[in-house]
């Protein structure tokens, strides 16, 4: 049975197998961070356009376009 094992220690081989898992977790964490930032920015936009009637014209967009952008789901860019 030992002739099936490589010359590398089992711990080193196990550590290498976790790299794709770590990359997946890191990518997922980054995606969640981006989604939370988008949600915060869109909530801030909604607050800004509801504060005053001139706020939307300061942005240079129509009120409906600003509201459409602010109400988009956080996972959409």
Would you write up a description of this structure?
- By secondary structure, the protein is mainly α.
- It has one domain.
- It is 71% helix and 0% strand.
What is the compact description of this entry?
The protein is mostly helical and 77 residues long. The chain is built from 3 helices and no strands.
Q: Quick one: overall form?
A: rod-shaped
Count of the separate structural domains: 1
> Could you estimate the helical fraction of the residues in percent?
over 70%
The biggest beta sheet reads: none
The count of strands amounts to: 0
What is the overall pLDDT average? 77
What portion of residues belong to β-strands?
under 5%
The ordered string of helix (H) and strand (E) elements is: HHH
Task: Please mark out the parts with pLDDT under 50 across 5 or more consecutive residues, or reply none.
Answer: none
What's the number of helices?
3
Question: What is the structural class?
Answer: mainly alpha
């Amino acid at each position: 049975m030992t002739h099936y094992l490589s010359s590398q220690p089992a711990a080193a081989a196990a550590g290498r197998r976790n790299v794709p898992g770590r990359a997946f977790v890191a990518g997922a964490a980054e995606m969640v961070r981006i989604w939370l930032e988008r949600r915060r920015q869109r909530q801030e936009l909604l607050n800004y356009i509801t504060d005053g009637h001139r706020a939307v014209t300061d942005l240079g967009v129509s009120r409906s376009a600003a509201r459409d952008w602010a109400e988009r789901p956080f996972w959409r860019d």
